[in-house]
Design a protein that fits this description.
Mean pLDDT: 91
Distance between the termini: 31 Å
Oligomer: single chain
Number of strands: 5
Shape: globular
């Protein structure tokens, strides 16, 4: 499936002011139907490098094509996204 350039542009615009909360996850699901979207605590991804960072949230891409789900930096193979809070409230 993957995430295309147009979808990434929409995601970027949406996450510029979004927080890593339920509303952002719901918004991403509406914005990109078929894409898995979830939120996790910052400590859950502390050893990973975000695909993109915004004012209030880090974006990680999720590759769920194989038996084990993993973080990826390649949008063409991403099947979902993970949001994690950043900054002092993280």
């Amino acid at each position: 499936m993957g995430i295309g350039a147009d979808q990434l542009t929409l995601i970027d615009a949406f996450l510029e002011t979004a927080a890593a909360d339920h509303a952002a996850v719901s918004g991403l699901r509406r914005l990109a139907p078929g894409l898995t979207a979830t939120r996790c605590d910052t400590t859950d991804v502390r050893d990973e490098t975000p695909f993109r960072s915004y004012a209030k949230v880090d974006l990680f891409l999720l590759d769920g094509r194989d038996h084990c789900v993993k973080i990826t930096s390649d949008p063409s193979v991403a099947t979902g996204v993970i949001l994690a809070p950043r900054g002092e409230g993280a």
